[in-house]
Amino acid sequence: MSKAVHVVCPECEAVNRVPQDRLGGGAKCGKCHAPLFAGVPLALDEQRFAHHIGRSDLPLVVDFWAPWCGPCRMMAPAFEEAARLLEPQARFLKVNTEEARGLATRLGIRSIPTLAVFREGREVTRTAGAMDASSLVAWARRYL
Fold first, then answer.
1. Which one of 48, 71, 103, 140 is most buried, by most CB atoms within 10 A?
2. Is 129 helix (H, G, I), strand (E, B) or coil?
């Protein structure tokens, strides 16, 4: 039996223990039965972000963005493509810095888009600026 990892449900926020070898096999939430991975980024507010950071064993790739930011909007399809390609190796999250100003301030987000990777609740790397899908996937893979 492989090691179990904690995965936060994207629908109900329940924390699920999933054997690593079953992550890619259509794993579903034990509480609400929703798929744990849909291959799309999750839009989170500050509270949900804290829950995912604190409870998920998966690496988290986060896009800090704002709706008025042209490069952010241009990069959105590339971020979605990266999520489709790299889940369930990592969870992809989007945080709107206009709605989560306190979080952006605490994390020192000074330019957008900013991409960051978190492991075990801690930031391991970040980069600022828009990327195409292949560059984003290559960057994220270095830290997964």
1. 140
2. coil
* Tokens of residue 135, six digits: 């560059």
At 64-118, the pLDDT tens digits run 999 999 999 999 999 999 999 999 999 999 999 999 999 999 999 999 999 999 9
CB atoms within 10 A of CB 32: 12
What does the block give as tokens for 141?
């893979």
Supply the residues annotated as catalytic: 69, 72
| Cβ count within 10 A of residue 6 | 13
Residue 115 corresponds to which tokens in the numbers above? 């991409």
Report the predicted TM-score, pTM, of the whole model to 2 decimal places: 0.95
Token digits for 60?
Answer: 């988290």
Query: Which segments within the chain are labelled E, that is strand?
Result: 4-8, 15-19, 42-44, 60-65, 91-96, 114-119, 122-128
Of residues 104, 84, 92, 75, the one with CA closest to residue 144: 92
Per-residue pLDDT, 37 = 93
